[in-house]
Design goal:
By secondary structure, this protein is α/β, with parallel strands linked by helices. It has 4 domains: 6-174, P-loop containing nucleotide triphosphate hydrolases (Rossmann fold); 195-241, Helicase, Ruva Protein, domain 3, CATH 1.10.8; 246-366, Zinc Finger, Delta Prime, domain 3; 379-565, no CATH class. It has helices at residues 6-9, 22-33, 51-63, 77-84, 101-111, 133-144, 164-167, 180-194, 200-210, 214-225, 234-241, 246-257, 261-273, 278-298, 310-320, 325-344, 348-360, 362-366, 438-442, 449-463, 469-473, 491-497, 500-514, 545-554; strands spanning 40-44, 90-94, 121-126, 150-156, 171-174, 477-481, 484-489, 518-523. It is elongated and about 100 Å long.
């Protein structure tokens, strides 16, 4: 004898049995009790959250022999026939195979006949977004003003495909995913009803893997129970569903902490050989970075925010101490971004391997000690900051070559053209290399770009260092606030300035001249300069559309030749 699937065996038969949709069940139950039934209903939401189940319960409630009633009795002939799918007045239609206009026209003809046995004739259209445009048009008037004692219930996972004219004729109910705790409680009830002993972590894994879908959770529960071990364990769930265990996740974190790319590659091969679910692996890895972030940031207070056994929490607390908070935050953000890239890639294994290598080499790629500047809420802002105090290199030493962060370029409005680079002036005898002139020190209130350029030129001559003229050829828009100098420059200037040997020299001089503690450089947009800027008095020249399009696409700017006004 074929075993009935758990999703069918334990399908709710009354409004009270439906999990996670309290508001919808309350509204529909009251409507049924007061016999105030709408001509058409639209149930939308992700898969496995009870849309079709709710439609059947509503059909039973309004057709029950005890109606009007808030709940179907599930004992009368009408309720039993609807439950069995044999009621002549309740028609379930699969729009995926009956979505043509011909079927819609036949449906309009059937609507005209009065119910044969029940109080209401109910048409349940599943996957209704599969109806063709012509079929929707054919149903428009019928949905708005159907004959007495007729109601339509349409269920869909893609409500965005519905014409607005259809949605406006329906009472629209949006079904939400079940919460983790709600889905776990539902699985506990099913396991107890089946008489199967279980580990709480096993049901927790199933609830996380189902991602809010009751049907998915029930299907996976039945799949694991088919193993026939007599007890539902977390290890069996991971084996059957192909989920990575804490040991693999801990080895991943260890390899990242040690910057061991070879070990990460071996681990990835092991993951692929085991046939693990890469999507869920990344979801769990993202959750681990989140837990580590909270443990590192909130300490003992993070316990109430992390739903883990004490031994697992101790494990991730140990590894959280191996990273600084900024690194954990960056790894968390990168893991979330990697989920989409791995899912959409034609080579998911290669994308995942590159992502793991990026995690391991994050300090080098982002140069967090030198030139990286991660800001809260920003994935990777393309900016430059001074080295951290504990690892700041002496000014006399040339820093090792470091890569510049590849990220989204921060833009600021304005394309401000100021004066050209002034001619270099000979440094006074009492000015040391890279220092500020005594006149500039005496006049702290009148900092100008021209004065800064003069100091740079003196330092260049005194130290014999090279600073590309391109950096200083065009003036930068600058401001000082809270001991931070913010510079907005052209993209071509930014690329030169990003080179470590250039920025170290530039950073030292800028801090001394402007008397700041941090220097941040951003790329400004190619838009018109703001009012009051140096170029605001110039006539605005109309550019060909092709040039404007290229500027937007490539982030390019036009730098005029010759002296500027």
């Amino acid at each position: 004898m074929n075993q009935v699937a758990l999703a069918i065996k334990y399908r709710p038969q009354s409004f009270a049995e439906v999990s996670g949709q309290d508001m919808i069940t309350a509204i529909l139950s009251r409507a049924s009790a007061e016999d105030k039934i709408a001509p058409a209903y639209l149930f939308s939401g992700t898969r496995g959250v009870g849309k079709t189940t709710m439609a059947r319960i509503l059909a039973k409630a309004i057709n029950c022999l005890r109606a009007p009633t808030a709940e179907p009795c599930n004992e009368c002939p009408h309720c039993r026939h609807i439950t069995a799918g044999a009621a002549v007045d309740v028609l379930e239609i699969d729009a995926a195979s009956h979505g043509g206009v011909e079927y819609a026209r036949k449906l309009k003809e059937d609507v005209g006949f009065a119910p044969m046995e029940c109080r209401y004739k109910v048409f349940i259209i599943d996957e209704a977004h599969m109806l063709s445009k012509e079929a929707f048009n054919a149903l428009l008037k019928t949905l708005e003003e159907p004959p007495s004692r007729v109601t339509f219930i349409m269920a869909t996972t893609e409500v965005h495909k519905f014409p607005a004219t259809i949605i406006s004729r329906c009472q629209h109910f949006i079904f939400k995913r079940l919460s983790m705790s709600g889905l776990e409680d539902h699985l506990v009830r099913i396991a107890k009803a089946e008489g199967v002993p279980f580990e709480p972590m096993a049901l927790n894994l199933l609830a996380r893997r189902a991602a809010g879908s009751v049907r998915d959770a029930m299907s996976m529960l039945g799949q694991v129970l088919a193993l026939g071990q007599g007890r539902l364990s977390a290890e069996d769930v991971r084996k059957v569903l192909g989920l990575a265990g804490p040991d693999i996740q801990a080895r991943i974190i260890e390899a990242v902490a040690e910057e061991d790319c070879r070990g990460l590659s071996a681990l990835l091969r092991e993951i692929l050989d085991l046939g693990l679910d890469l999507g869920f692996f990344l979801r769990e890895l993202g959750q681990i970075w989140r837990n580590m972030f909270l443990l590192r940031q909130a300490g003992a207070g993070a316990g109430e925010l992390i739903d883990l056994p004490e031994e697992e929490m101790a494990l991730w607390r140990h590894w959280a101490e191996k990273f600084d908070l900024t690194s954990i935050h960056a790894c968390w953000q990168m893991t979330i971004d990697a989920q989409r890239r791995v899912r959409d890639s034609l080579e998911p294994a290669l994308v995942l391997e590159l992502f793991l290598f990026n995690l391991a080499l994050l300090p080098r790629l982002l140069t967090m000690e030198g030139f990286g500047n991660l800001r809260a809420g920003v994935t990777m802002e393309k900016s430059i900051a001074e080295p951290s105090p504990e690892k700041k290199q002496p000014e006399t030493e040339r820093p090792a070559e470091k890569s510049v962060p590849v990220s989204t370029v921060s833009s600021v409005a304005g394309d401000i053209d100021k004066e050209n680079k002034p001619e270099a002036a000979a440094p006074p005898a009492d000015v040391q290399p890279g220092s500020i002139s005594r006149e500039a020190e005496a006049d702290q209130g009148e900092k100008t770009w021209k004065g800064f350029v003069e100091q740079c030129n003196r330092a260049v001559k005194a130290e014999g260092r090279a600073l590309p003229a391109l950096i200083m050829r065009r003036a930068m828009d600058w401001s000082v606030r809270d001991k931070v100098l913010r510079l907005n420059c052209y993209k071509i200037q930014y690329d030169e300035l990003c080179k470590p040997e250039n920025f170290t020299f530039f950073d030292r001089l800028a801090k001394k001249y402007f008397q700041v503690e941090e220097v941040i450089v951003n790329v400004r947009s190619s838009e018109s300069p703001p009012e009051g800027g140096a170029a605001s008095g110039r006539a605005k020249k109309e550019l060909p559309p092709l040039i404007v399009e290229m500027q937007c696409e490539l982030g390019a700017v036009i730098i005029p030749n010759g002296p500027q006004p």
